[in-house]
Design brief:
Layout (H helix, E strand, L loop, with lengths): L1 H22 L3 H7 L4 H4 L18 H13 L16 H12 L12 E3 L5 E3 H11 L10 H4 L19 H13 L10 H6 L4 H12 L3
Antiparallel strand pairs: 1-2
Helix pairs in contact: 2-5, 4-5, 6-10, 8-10
């Protein structure tokens, strides 16, 4: 009886190990599988269009989660409707590994003036930096640095994406979507929705512009 139990434990361990191997992404295998993504995201994950996100170096764990969420319908991305339906877990893991292995090309921040709710015109770069590094203490909005790091490099083990160098237009849209509840795949803690809900349009624009120049 003990031998049967031991054999069962070993078998379960081998199955788990095999699943772990399957879940590991292979960047080399992902290159060919990612060819379909190039039209929007660029062959190396550096999208030339500001409305499509750069995927290069974004974080393997984060990229895989987004594909899972889009495939399951938990994140609505019209341009990706049906594109992931036939992909296996391994396919998505390989694609995530491929894009994460690439180097992000920095978008670069631009001089910007924004009009805040008081009606004053302020330096958008300075406002964006303040929001990124300090948040808005008066309404409990945390700094972005806690999850995405001071340089915008993200936190790969935690699945927090790299923001540095991302297109400002794309970041702005995501923050607006989180604020409006149009994007809700930020977990049970509603982290991004909680952050975005107290940001004005001007603050979102300033923050997105600053982030695009982080490195």
């Amino acid at each position: 009886m003990k031998n049967i139990f031991k054999q069962a434990i070993v078998a379960v361990g081998l199955i788990a190990a095999a699943q772990g191997v399957l879940a590991a992404g292979d960047a080399a295998a992902g290159e060919g599988k990612a060819a379909m993504c190039a039209a929007c995201h660029g062959a190396d994950g550096n999208s030339p269009a500001p409305n499509f996100p750069k995927l290069a170096g974004l974080g393997e764990k984060y990229l895989l989660k987004q594909m899972h969420d889009i495939k399951a319908g938990d994140r609505q991305v019209m341009e990706m409707t049906g594109l992931l339906d036939s992909m296996s877990e391994q396919d998505m893991a390989d694609i995530a590994a491929f894009f994460d292995s690439k180097t992000t090309q920095l978008a670069g921040a631009k001089p910007l003036t924004v009009r805040v709710n008081s009606g004053a015109d302020v330096d958008g770069l300075a406002l964006g930096e303040t929001l990124y590094r300090a948040g808005k203490a008066d309404v409990g909005t945390p700094a972005c640095t806690g999850c995405h790091s001071p340089r915008g490099q993200g936190n790969e083990p935690a699945g927090y994406p790299r923001l540095s160098g991302q297109h400002a237009d794309y970041i702005e849209k995501q923050l607006r979507d989180f604020r409006a509840g149009a994007r809700v795949n930020d977990g049970d803690q509603r982290t991004m929705r909680s952050v975005a809900k107290n940001l004005s349009d001007a603050e979102i624009k300033a923050l997105a512009n600053f982030i695009s120049g982080l490195n």
